[in-house]
Amino acid sequence: MQLVKQSPWQRFRPWVITAVVVLIFAWAFSGIPLASVKPQALIITKAIFHGLFHPDWSYVYTGDGEDLVTALVETLAIAFLGTFISAILSVPFAFLAARTKKGFFTPRSTLGKVILTIVRVFPEIVLAIMFIKAVGPGAYAGVLAVSIHSIGMLGKLFSEAVENIDRGPNEAIVAAGGSALDGLTLATLPAVMPEFMNYTLYRFEIAVRSAAILGMVGAGGIGAPLIFALQTRQWPKVGIILLGIIIMVTVIDFLSGQLRKKLV
Amino acid sequence: MESLLPERQFSQKWHIKGLLTVVLVILILFGSGQMTGVSTDFSWDQFWQILIKMTQPDWSYVSAIVTPILETIQMALVGTLLGTIIAVPFSLLAARNIMKNAVARGVIRFFLNLVRALPDLLLAALFVAIVGIGPMAGVGALTVFSFGMISKLFYEAIETIDDGPIEALTAAGANSIQTIVFAVVPQVFNQFLSYFLYTLEINVRASTVLGYLGAGGVGLYLSQTLSLFRYDRTAIVILAILVVVIIVDGISNRLREALA
């Protein structure tokens, strides 16, 4: 019996990979000053946890519009409006980026994909600051930032949905004498609608999280009171805001998950 | 003759459910519009000024960006690794086929859900308050963030494995550590690596903005250039982020395809 001889590369491959991985992580750890932690870190951690377990309940609702409930509702409003606008804006981008023709040279779809990648990588915080310059600080800037930034991800997911549908019905309508618009409204859109709704709800879950953050740069929502409370070291207030965010995100995730289960 | 067609109920005939949904969505839309004050004027000239400045990037700034962008990648690597190391025991404890005790499993999953509810930048703000300004805050935030994400991906992977090898090892008298090492790990290892790379991609993307709140990396330069109104330099930072994200995504995608 003759054993298959391993080439040197096959024999050393695991070792080479291990060495490369170890080198990469050695380099990564070398750049992080692991010891540079504030000496009072433990005390502050304790204070935050103390705040989490003894939250400032009086902040939940005061009635003057500067309380937790108002800020959370504003956060949800930013996320809802932003996602709604971006879901509509994403549809043309999705059809632009969808690769419906086979072949190597697809300038239209490549252009769409490049645009969507740039939008996706453009940091949401920078967008928020640009919009704050245009409309002033507040929730409106947050809505605009969410609605533009979400196009990047929604457009990509939508275009994949368009790529994956069965194109038979569309061809049948065109063959029977329907216009391209008939094909779009009667065959393509009904087929992709459930997936579009599903992705929109999924993106809404993400938008709630980012709307909770955008306030840190002044774009409305719960972020602003949180960063103030952190800077002024009001730990009980930090605690109640964190609890509020956790509850809001969990409830929205649950509701949206239930709706999405029904859709699919 | 009696009709055999099924009667449509009142609510079905008039599409009550669909109509109510539409009305509800429109009401929420108007409510949100009121709440966020979207009727305010949009000053286009301000916005155009920024955009025009951004289209003329200050290329000399590239050299200043290289070190922080490398620090960003280092933060992402360290944070993902630490998060994964912490996540492995938790994912085992949260998997239905490893942890038979439903109450303990429920408690662990509840805890993981709480961790996952916190957005990355919020964690960064917390860690800046705790450990102070610098890359350690970013590493802390990314560790917790990837811990939440990876533990969920991992326990779902563990739950899909074939139970045969576990039963065989248990029948042969292996203890639970031996079962995990010889029956669970070999089945999920490739999936784990794939999820690790996926989380690394997300962390690289997240780590580029963490610095905005003082958590190290290139994000600091975003906030500096923006507050000095040097949008030509902001454009360079964004371009650098774009390049890094595309490169890391590309490498990671290739590796994940090789693993699958």
Automatic annotation (TrEMBL), chain A:
Query: What does the UniProt keyword field contain?
Result: Membrane, Transmembrane, Transmembrane helix, Transport
Q: Which family does it belong to?
A: Belongs to the binding-protein-dependent transport system permease family.
Which residues are listed as membrane-spanning? Answer: 12-32, 76-98, 110-132, 138-158, 206-229, 235-255
Q: Please give, as recorded in its UniProt entry, the membrane topology of this protein.
A: Multi-pass membrane protein
Residues forming the ABC transmembrane type-1 domain are 72-256
Q: Which SUPFAM superfamilies match?
A: MetI-like (SSF161098)
Q: In its UniProt entry, what is this protein called?
A: PhnE_2 protein
Which molecular function terms from Gene Ontology are attached?
A: ABC-type phosphonate transporter activity
- Please name the taxonomic classification of the source: Bacteria, Bacillati, Bacillota, Bacilli, Lactobacillales
One short Pfam family name for this protein?
A: BPD_transp_1
Supply the source organism for this entry: Weissella cibaria
Q: Where is the signal peptide?
A: none
Localization, per the record, is:
Cell envelope; Cell membrane; Membrane
Recorded GO cellular component terms are: cell envelope; plasma membrane
TrEMBL record, chain B:
Record's subcellular location:
Cell membrane
Q: Which SUPFAM superfamilies match?
A: MetI-like
A molecular function annotated in GO for this UniProt entry is:
ABC-type phosphonate transporter activity
Xref: Pfam families: BPD_transp_1
Give yes or no: UniProt keyword Protease: no
- Give the membrane topology: Multi-pass membrane protein
**One CC-aspect GO term:** plasma membrane
Keywords (alphabetical) are: Cell membrane, Membrane, Transmembrane, Transmembrane helix, Transport
Source species, domain of life: Bacteria
Q: Which InterPro entries match?
A: MetI-like (IPR000515), MetI-like_sf (IPR035906), PhnE/PtxC (IPR005769)
Cytoplasm listed as a keyword: no
Where are the bilayer-spanning segments?
18-38, 73-95, 176-198, 204-222, 234-252
What residues does the ABC transmembrane type-1 domain cover?
69-252
- So what family is this one in? Belongs to the binding-protein-dependent transport system permease family.
Quote the PANTHER family the UniProt record gives.
Answer: ABC TRANSPORT SYSTEM PERMEASE PROTEIN P69, PHOSPHONATES TRANSPORT SYSTEM PERMEASE PROTEIN
Annotated protein name in UniProt: PhnE_1 protein
